[in-house]
Amino acid sequence: MKVKKSQITGYNERYLSEHHEQYFHLNIQLDRREINADDLVAQLQKFQVAVPSWALGAGGTRFGRFSTGGEPGNLEQKIEDVGLLHAITQSAGAISLHIPWDIPKDTKAIKQKAKSLGLVFDAVNSNTFQDQPDQKYSYKFGSLSHADSSIRQQAIDHNLEVIEYGKALGSKSITVWLADGSSFPGQNNFRRAYQHTQAALQEIYNGMPKDWKMYIEYKPYEPHFYSMVIPDWGTSLSLAEACGENAYTLVDLGHHLPNTNIEQIVALLLMKGKLGGFHFNDSKYGDDDLTCGSIKPYQLFLIFNELVEGMHNNVNNNPDLAWMIDASHNLKDPLEDLIQSLEAIRIAYARALLVDREELAEAQEENDLTRCQEILQAAFRTDVRPLLAEARRLSGGALNPIGFYRQMAVRKQLIKERGLKTVATGL
Ligand code: PSV
Ligand code: MN
Asked: Nearest-CA neighbor of 274 among 302, 304, 235, 305?
């Protein structure tokens, strides 16, 4: 399904005067704080978040999976869905592929299709957490960290092959998430597992083109429940440093133990020039993969506050970050869920841009804690939605993406085109 520009403008026309009024009022409010709303809008227009190819179908839990209907049955259809999201929101201009879930058969045609929808290819992701039917050795007891060198080699070769797919599509980075670990004390030799992993990552790193980046993702538990080989940002950072300057730590918001101060991790990684990117989602308990901003919007704002601050004082030349949503849509329509996530991420970003940094630094120097909190919360409590709507409108998107999606009855249309029973590849 494709939406026409005229359908979006037609939809917007009905809400235009209401929007102008809201934007006008926000303008006055921001003007008093010496903030230029148009500058913020321009920054929001540039801010794009990648959508993973595995998030377009219904996710599941280990107890079951409930289909949404109209799920994309192949890579072409997945790209079409991201194209749809991008057309409506003007903020999802990239797609991230997981190999082998989404191996492009005709690379040229896939690239062309993405280009026609205004999409580029974000990081490619390797998968050594599942066995594939044609695979010689099993990853049951590990991949890059495995005790057996033939199995490590197979996993290294897979990563190198993923890089080749990425090169053909125009990707510039690879994300490695390692499911390796142990579920019982004594199962693994921690140091040997780390050393094997480091050597393997170095080999993959050396196989990357010079202008590529490697993102090393960490996770404290799951699928293993006693230890993970890369459980935290410290381990990821040490491996990135061992690989070289183009290797970075990737922060997935769900990959932390409850109450971890993620904003502090982000601040320190940025200071080291080693923050590569983000996987956005939200959680109450663990790696819940819920809609971004649905549980802890204040935490998301505090993370963006550190990001904006760190990017301003970029002492170690941290490169631009790779932004991606990594969520699982068990109950909601995946496309609606993604629209809501995109909105929540941009709200947090816009609010962080409102923080008066000079005043905050001053209040921090004076240990005026009350003022520090007032400054942060003044930004957090500002309703920035008119800024987002204006950014979308100027770029050709819908003033209210969910409203437009529902009015167009997109899911109904997709079910009509693809059927009720299609199942997307991936999780
Ligand atoms: C693992 O939980 C993860 O966050 C990694 O990024 C994977 O690539 C993705 O989810 C999909 O399994
Ligand atoms: Mn992730």
From this structure: 235
